[in-house]
Every structure is written in structure tokens, then in C-alpha cells.
Amino acid sequence: MKLSTLLHLLPFALASTPPSPGLSYFGQATISVSAPFPIGPGPFGNRNIFPIAGGTFTGPLFNATIPAFGGDWGLGDPNLGNFYIDARYQLHTTNGADIYVEANGPQQPDGVLHTRVRFEAGTDKGYGWLNGIVSVGIVTPALGEEGEVAGIEIELWRLESPVVEGKGEGKGKETAGGDRW
Predict the structure, then answer these.
(1) Best exposed site among 2, 27, 44, 163 by fewest CB in 10 Å?
(2) Rg (CA), the chain
(3) What is the set of domains in the chain, with CATH numbers?
(4) How many CA atoms lie within 13 A of 174 on its CB side?
């Protein structure tokens, strides 16, 4: 092989792994659910609807209640023994803003539920910045006295871009709490 052929590959050989993104703690949602409505077996597994009975969200940037409407249209596969979250609900902040939330994600092989959470907020009360974040969470079921699912807790984190010199410095939006994101 000619040296000239190898020289053009040199930049690829010297390339390093890009910096990893980080996670910052975003908050905790504690949600109570009512008895599920089983839809039953279907083409994608067994669907159960868990109506939301209410809850709270607490975090470093804002706090909110979770009104008693919305739900999780969860999908389970009895052959694989797993569950897939498909939830939609609302946050009502302490200063009166309403934020739509969608959460979905699969159960992992170790039984832990992971979720991707998307927020949709108006800009009139200072929460429009939520529309542009990427959030992930770990879901822990809360069991009732008879072993039924009585609620869930979701620990949420926000994905943060890695700091790369000369890229993205000094940018971001100010949150309702005055922090820069």
C-alpha cells in the first residue's frame, strides 16, 4: 500500500472520542394512580390504562402539582415479561403555569423502567425553555397493600451538552427561577 493512501487516513486514526454529555438533576414526580382499566391482549401486547389520581413534582427550578387527570396507557408483553410506559399528564406550577408532559419508555432487562420525558409549555409564564430540553428518568412503582401498583416515582435528569471550547459558550435561556440553561 502506498504511503499517500495511508496519509489521508491519518486524521481518522488520531481522532478521539467526543466528550460525553452530562446529566443534571431535574426533579422528582410522585404520582398516584387509580385501579387500571384492562384493555386486554392486542397486536402489541396487553394494554392497561392507569388513570392518574394526582401527585406532585419537586425540583430545583420549579415545583408543581399533578392534577387528577391523564394516565398511562401502558403496554405489557406477557411472553417477554416487560412493560412499556406511554403516559400523558399535566404539571400545574406554583405560579399558575400549566405544562403538558409525555413520558414513554421501556422496561430494561433488569426490571428497571426507563422513560423519555417531553415537556410542552407556553411562554407566557416563563416556562417556554422546557420545550427545548431532553429529559430522561428512572421509574419506580409504588405498590399498595395488596401488591397492586398504587403509584410511581420518577427521578428525572436533564441532558446537558458537553462543554467544547469555542462551541456554545455563553448561550442558553434564563429559566423562571433565573438560572441559565
Answers:
(1) 2
(2) 21
(3) 29-160 (2.40.160.20)
(4) 4
73 Cβ neighbours under 8 A, 6+ residues apart? 47, 49, 86, 87, 88
In Å, how far are 57, 70, 81, 97 from 45, measured between CA atoms? 30, 21, 10, 36
Distance between CA 154 and CA 89 in Å, rounded?
Answer: 13
For 63-104, the pLDDT digits (tens) are: 999 999 999 999 998 777 889 999 999 999 999 999 999 999
SS3 category, 67: coil
Looking at residue 174, its amino acid is: E
- Enter the pTM of the model: 0.79
Whose cell is 417556554? That residue is 128
Pick from 73, 125, 120, 118: which is nearest to 97 by CA?
A: 125
Q: What are phi and psi of 128, to 5 degrees?
A: -60, -25
